Amino acid sequence: MLSRFNVFTKITLLILLLLIPVLTLYTYSNRESVKVIEHEIQSGTTNRLSFFASQVEATIYQLSLYGVSIGQDSSIQEYQRPDFAEQPYERVKLSVSILEKMNLYNAASKWHSEITLYFPRTRQVLSTDYYAALSYDEKQFDAPFPQAWNYEGNRFTWHATDPVSAMANPKSARLITKISFPIEHVTALLDQNKINNSGDPFLFDPSRGTIRNGSANETRIALLSGQLKGMSLAENGAFRAELDDTEYFVSYIRSKSLGWYYVDYVPMQQILSPVTSSRNLFYLSIAVLLVMSVAVVFALYRSVQLPLLQLVRGTKRLSAGDFSVRLPNAERNEFSVLFGRFNIMAQRIQELIENVYEEQLRRREATLKQLQSQINPHFLYNCLFYIKNMARMKNEQAVVAMSLNLGEYYRYITRSENDLATIREEVRMATNYLNIQALRLERMRFEIRIPDAMLEVTVPRLTLQPIIENAIVHGLEPQAEDGEILVSGSCEDGIYMLTVEDSGVGMTEEAMADLQRKLEKPLDQNMGCGTWNVHQRMLFLFGEGAGLRYARSASGGVRVTLSWLDKTDE
């Protein structure tokens, strides 16, 4: 009891000692949170302003691009011809077509703009504005055109010339394009931006004043404009400003097209007030929690901590493999049920582990039997038909040879008392099988080269036959000329290899790679089971690295290599 009381005392003192660092950490965290929120306010304001600026710039860029590209239109090129002035009917007809194209562009554009085309050589004017097309005023082309949009009469105007070099001397141009739009389009975007956000965006120019949204705070914007005029503004930036005894965060971006500044501002303290209230509430809550913690810590220690320690120790022993661990009955509470369930679980795990070991042994034997039994019966049917045909032809020698080889072959594959066989036995069975196929095809030759040192090595029964069968069926039978099968063996650095090569039709690299991938996947209805069984049995018996590998044969067909590591010394 004394030991438990000492632990309880230590926990209580630890809580008290942690109070000061917790309060200090929270104060620091609160300050950092305020900084993060301020940064998010600044980042959000800047991002919203950047998005608004990109909207305006994108629309203005489309207008500018149209002003540059309109001169390449074939109708306008034809309208500029000096001799075209002598054809009044065609000229009027073509002018109507050009105006339709310009009006169609206006209908598809986000902003309705005024587009005017001047033809200095023919002194003609085409415009979407009826009054602008009444006369050709040559005086307006005395001065060079500015490279940027110009603000005049509550409209933004931009000129383009064809050729571009005529911007300095507009009277020498073949075509002058004038595009203008009213500031109402910009005001509408400002209103939309204000509805979706908490700022008050506007456009500012030191010499021309401001363009404001429809519900702008005139007083604040006037004060802020006065501050902006006294500052040296960069291409973009942000700063804090004091307006009406309230701190605001102001961000601005200079428009590359218009030359004006996009400006937006948001109040700081109004957004930070919930953080301040949350801080005060935390200090009150921490005091209440401290009192409550002292009252419940002792009860928690006795009712929770001690049973948990027993449960942890039992779990560690269970994870270490000691399945005989059992927990003593605790007091009458929730842990007594948990301890009882733990004991039942440990007992069942112990029983399951024992059953799993027995099941693994039975499954291993059953898997080998099942894999060995998957043999295509179609081969037997072909051999029986061959015997029938040879008997009709009175070819007694062929019938005897086929019957003897077939009998030896099936005597071997139907033996199930041993799952393994020596390579000598596999070679003998493969020879019988090849003799049978040679009798059937009459144009097949085969050769077997196995070193004597390998003949007593054991492998799974029916290892060679499925590989040789694939070589004959898919390699030799599809071709018209004679074919050859070569079976060879070797051993290098403790790795045994059996190779089956054919001189058949061969396979592409992609087909062999696909076949190699299928060997590692579960067997499905679209795959032959012969070579898949061989590969899986080799993996099952000899582990990773064993199995089949496909490659191109030097004789033009396919080379299948069966390799495995010699484990006799392990």
From TrEMBL:
Which SMART domains does the record match to this protein? HAMP (SM00304)
One GO term of the cellular component aspect? Answer: plasma membrane
Q: How does it sit in the membrane?
A: Multi-pass membrane protein
Q: Which residues form a coiled coil?
A: none
**Cell compartment(s), UniProt:** Cell membrane
Q: Which residues cross the membrane?
A: 281-301
Where does it mainly reside? membrane
Q: Which GO terms describe its molecular function?
A: phosphorelay sensor kinase activity
Q: Where is the HAMP domain?
A: 302-354
Q: Which UniProt keywords apply?
A: Cell membrane, Kinase, Membrane, Phosphoprotein, Transferase, Transmembrane, Transmembrane helix
What Gene3D superfamilies does its record include?
Answer: 6.10.340.10, Histidine kinase-like ATPase, C-terminal domain (3.30.565.10)
What is this protein identified as?
A: Two-component system sensor histidine kinase YesM
Annotated organism of origin: Paenibacillus methanolicus
